[in-house]
Amino acid sequence: MAKSVIPIGPYHPLQEEPEFFTLTVDGETVVDIDVNIGYNHRGIEKLSELKTFDQSTFVIERICGICSTSHPFAYTRAVEDIIPVEVPERAKYIRTTIAEGERVHSHLLWLGLAGHFLGYNTVYMWVWKLREEILDVMEILSGNRNNYAIFKPGGVRRDFNPDDIPLALRKIDSIVPTLNKLKKAIIDDPVLHARLKGIGILTREDALDYCALGPTSRASGVAKDVRKDAPYGAYDQVDWDMIVTQNGDVFEKVVVRVLEVFESIKIMKQCLMNLPPGEIDLNIKNIPPGEGIGAHEAPRGETFHYVRSDGTNRPARHKVRAPTFMNLPTCKSTVIGETISDATIILASVDPCYCCTERMAVRTSEGKRIYGGQDLIRLSQEKTQRIRRKMGIK
Amino acid sequence: MTREEILKDLKQRFKEDIVNFFDKSPKRVYMEIKPESLVKCASYIFKELKARFNIASGVDSRTAIEILYHFSLEYINLLVSLRVKLNRNNPQIDSLAPVFKGANWIEREIHEILGVDFKGHPDLRRLLLPDEWPKGVYPLRCDYTEWDKNAIRDRGV
Amino acid sequence: MSLTLRALLKSPWVFHLSTGSCNNCDIEVLDCLTPRFDIERFGMLLAPSIKHADVLLVTGSCNRKSAIRLKRLYEQAPKPCVVVAIGECSLSRGMFIHSYNCPLPLDKIIPVDAYIPGCPPKPEAIIMGAVKLIQKLKGTL
Amino acid sequence: MKLPKVRELSEAVKALLSKPYTSKFPKKPHQPYHNFRGQPIYNQEKCVGCLACEEVCPVEAIAHEDQVDPANPMRIMIHYTDTCIFCGSCEAACIADNEGIKLSTEWDLAFFDRKASQETIEKELQLCEICGQPIACKDHLKWIAEKIGELTYSSPTLYLTRLKSLGIVDENLISASRDYGRSDRVKILCARCRRESTLSTSTK
Fold first, then answer.
1. 3-state secondary structure string, D141-201?
2. CA nearest neighbour of D139 among D187, D99, D96
3. Contact (CB<8Å) B130/C108
4. Nearest by CB to A41, which of C16, C20, C28?
5. Residue ranges per domain, chain A?
């Protein structure tokens, strides 16, 4: 059969960041994939050199909205590595709380979208409903639902108000029972097992070779997590576990993320309850020349920042490495050999900023067929339906 | 292996290649090497020492173009940065992409934003910049100036 | 008010486009669809293609690669098409005003009818912006 | 296979009996939490026009315009709503006890014309009595004079401003035009004219 090319992207009805995938398919099987990015390129590394160290925090907060604490966290750690200093205890706890809140809402967001891709719109609506509560917690604590503007080299910008903490804790507690139910529903759902087990396998060797990060690699049995390997913030003072599974298929990635949500909630609660008193900021005045490296385990994997200072009040060079940059190329080893209807969820399983299109064309040997925008998702949803019918579940 | 053993081993093994060795802190080591021995050093660190390749970062420091390859050794919580300095007029270096796949994209990125030529890279296409971006203009070089005459740099009202 | 515009305002279908945003505004737009805000109450629906849509929601700072596609999309849109800019990036490029990859603000590329500031705007602000826009088009504001 | 069915059914029954989750938003006004970061608003009384907020703003959302008309010198502080990212840097940097500009909880900011998307306040400006260039806002000079206390009397610019504000020196006192002599020193001067008048006592 003749090989054909499916362009996916850059714009997709479900939106998220634009990206352009070119799938080469042979019949229904994907034989090659190419990714074209750059629709979101805003030259942040250059912009950061135009701002002062303090202002840069806001620039890099806007690298990614879902990781809007991961990047400042890594950046502030890089700047603190130049000097070097240790931030005050209370600031550490505040940072950790915000970072974990972000992980919860990011994983829930992904779970909802994955549910939508598979045709489980109930999951999508449920999970996003839970997510609202976490966003409320963030608004109570930091003043905004996203983009918390709380990080600062040497500490944090604003303190938690002790009066708000009980309300925040109550809100966090309120989502746990529903989340538990959801966990059970996802982990022992027979259709999800049939649909997700054994597809898009990223082997341990490939995960190491592509230098994959975060849940993508932890699902493949690579037990690496910056929070455990090189503890920072309050991560060594609270009790939590690293979630690692062995198979590396899409189902395991879902499981890792769902279980991580519980760990994050655990960390958040511990941090809020044991918030130590004291200063929140070191008031760093000037930064000596030198180089610093900061890393933070973002929801998608390790965020890595390299900052060079030349003694002025602006960074001389600021390199940002987002986790998707390393994770996305793994689709080359996971998508190839699978069918197109699985491609959606596999591409989504690394939690990239995944995107589809207004139009895609599947050219088969019979001729040319043009699919409308949502057909890729429809194909995926139809497959779930087929499996359900086969298993006798209507 | 402990941290000391690894550092001693690195110093011993790459005696001729190391230009400068800077032991910054317990967690950070910077190793400046000659550009021609990059593949040798990097593949040893990646394959034998089982390091994870974090990222490479290119810096234009006005006198030379520096590329730093960051490797992290999680089992001893150490970050080794290999530094190479390239000639600013004709920056060229051997590609690491054939050695491990993780280096593929970042080399494409450095190629387009700093103009470094990676010899032996399998697929050195543009990654981020648009197609109409002029050839030979590298936005992260320090002598970059605005080339687009139509660009508006105020609020535009 | 023309008949098409009147029909449009009854149940505006929106198409959402991210032109190099940080994702927050996109997610807040999606949030409007989820149970707490549920904008389908007002007859608004997220359309899968611009050809089915009456309202174009634009987020992001219009970088070079997506500006071309933005123009093309606007040309494909059935007129009248109402354009709403969401978030600081699409209003004035905010943070990215000096970025080498974001040469023009959105309203220099396509005409914009309403602006919703915020970084990101709350879903309530987005809904409120839509309500204000509808009132304005109806001529009551 | 049975168990999931029961679980789903019980959820369905529960959902049927409980109130709808969706907010009644446009009908019922939305009140954000008290520390929500919304539109920053200038306080005409407290702001001293020192431009610290403009200096720290990461997005250049704050600007100023000096009107050096000798009859009515004014500094217009401008805050652009369409550029602000509501980060609160301006409030944190404000020298007037963080009250000159303050984040409000205002979130409903949609507008239709970008030219009008700005907030302004006017502050009275002090001009140099020789060259006519702006020195600082009058309130800013008063603020400095109050801060440094008795040291104020080491600088004529500061003590004259202070005495004028206290009503000891006539507000409308117009100094003689430049006489290139010693009397130049007892005037409200900008840094440059102050240096010149101090260094050159002889007539030019």
1. HHHHHHHHHHHHHHCHHHHHHHHHHHCCCCCCCCCCCCCCCHHHHCCCCCHHHHHHHHHCC
2. D96
3. no
4. C20
5. 44-325
| pTM reported for the whole predicted model | 0.89
Does domain C3-138 fall under CATH 3.40.50.12280? My reply is yes
d(CA A132, CA D76): 41
Q: For D117-145, what is each residue's pLDDT tens digit?
A: 888 999 999 888 888 889 999 999 999 99
The Cα–Cα gap between D157 and B132 comes to 57
Distance from CA of D110 to the nearest CA of C (A): 4
Q: In degrees, to the nearest 5, what angle opens at C-alpha B112 toward C-alphas B107 and B113? A: 100
Tell me: domain B3-119, CATH 3.30.460.80, correct? yes
Whether residues D87 and A189 touch (CB distance < 8 A) is answered with no
Taking contacts as CB-CB distances below 8 angstroms, the residues of chain D near C58 are none
Strand partners, C82: C55
Between strands B18-25 and B28-33, the pairing is antiparallel
Domains of chain D: 34-125 (3.30.70.3270), 128-204 (no CATH)
Taking one residue from B and the other from C, the number of pairs with CB-CB distance under 8 angstroms is: 34
Alpha-carbon span D201 to C69, nearest angstrom = 68
Shortest Cα distance, chain B CAs vs residue C65, angstroms: 5
Give the best residue of C38, C83, C90, C92 to mutate against chain D (max D CB count within 10 A): C92
Residues A348-378 have pLDDT tens digits of 776 664 332 222 323 323 333 334 445 556 6
User: What pLDDT score does A354 carry?
Assistant: 36
Q: Which residue of D has its CA nearest to C130?
A: D110
Spatial contact of A193 and A318, defined as CB atoms under 8 Å apart: no
CB B155 to CB D82 under 8 A?
Answer: yes
The residues in A 128-147 lying below 8 A from D, measured between CB atoms, are: 129, 136, 139-140, 143-144, 147
Residue pLDDT tens, chain A, 394 long = 567 777 766 665 444 566 677 777 777 777 777 777 767 777 788 888 888 998 889 888 888 777 788 889 999 999 998 988 999 999 999 999 999 999 998 899 888 888 888 888 888 888 888 888 899 999 999 888 888 888 999 899 989 888 889 999 999 999 899 899 888 888 887 888 888 888 888 888 888 888 888 888 898 888 888 888 888 889 989 999 999 998 888 888 888 999 999 999 999 999 999 999 999 988 888 889 988 888 899 888 888 888 989 888 888 888 888 787 777 777 777 877 787 777 777 777 766 643 322 223 233 233 333 344 455 566 666 677 776 676 666 5
CATH architecture of the domain A44-325 equals Orthogonal Bundle (1.10)
User: A68–C24: do the CB atoms touch at under 8 Å?
Assistant: yes
Q: CA A304 to CA A320: how far, in whole Å?
A: 6
Contact B150 C97 (CB under 8 A): no
Say whether B130 and A329 touch across the interface (CB within 8 A): no
SS3 (DSSP) at C56? strand
Instruction: Decide if C45 touches A, using CB distance below 8 A.
Output: no
Amino acid at C67: A
Q: B102–A209: do the CB atoms touch at under 8 Å?
A: yes
Q: What is d(CA A355, CA A352) in angstroms, rounded to the nearest whole number? A: 9
